[in-house]
Design brief:
The chain has helices spanning 2-21, 24-28, 38-53, 65-71, 83-105, 126-148, and strands at 115-116, 122-123. With 151 residues, it is an all-alpha fold. Strands 1-2 form a two-stranded antiparallel ribbon. A hairpin with a 5-residue loop joins β1 and β2. α1 runs antiparallel to α5 (83-105). The longest helix has 23 residues, at 83-105. The protein is globular and about 45 Å long.
């Protein structure tokens, strides 16, 4: 599981470069042919990790209900993110993964509510959720790499 979490940290390091190297305007821009933007993808991966790992384990999430509603599956940007929202996502990017690592070490994950993903894969454990999350983040990182060329 340590290597799986290291993969997640590597992914998050790549995502953090977008927050460091793109302006608020660029983060919010939705290029023609796309339904979302860089900052939505960042918010989405943070929210999804929390839903898959914590909510389905019956544990409290580190993200607000408002953030979940804004970035969960099936949403799209309804308005531009503010700098304060970008700063909040930047703060959550790594602390959520560090907390997951700590909670795994402390054996806090006791139960898991089975969840069929939109890809057809059925999550049956927190370990499966963490593995699937890496796949999910990789998909969104690829989308972000396409978006960056157009903003």
């Amino acid at each position: 599981m340590n290597q799986t979490l290291d993969v997640n940290k590597t992914s998050r390091n790549m995502v953090s470069k977008f927050l460091e190297n793109y302006t608020l305007e660029q983060l919010n821009k939705i290029p023609e042919g796309f339904s979302n933007n860089l900052i939505w993808n960042i918010g989405h991966i943070i929210v999804t990790q929390q839903l898959l790992v914590y909510k389905l384990s019956g544990l409290p999430m580190m993200v607000s209900d408002e953030m979940v509603e804004k970035y969960k599956k099936g949403t799209k940007p309804e308005q531009n993110a503010t700098q304060a929202e970008v700063d909040e996502l930047k703060a959550l990017l790594f602390v959520t993964i560090e907390k997951t690592n700590e909670d795994l070490a402390n054996k806090l994950f006791k139960v898991y509510q089975e969840y069929p993903t939109s890809t057809g894969f059925i999550l049956k454990s927190v370990e499966g959720a963490i593995n699937f999350n890496n796949f999910h983040e990789g998909l969104h990182l690829g989308i972000m790499m396409s978006l960056r060329k157009l903003v």
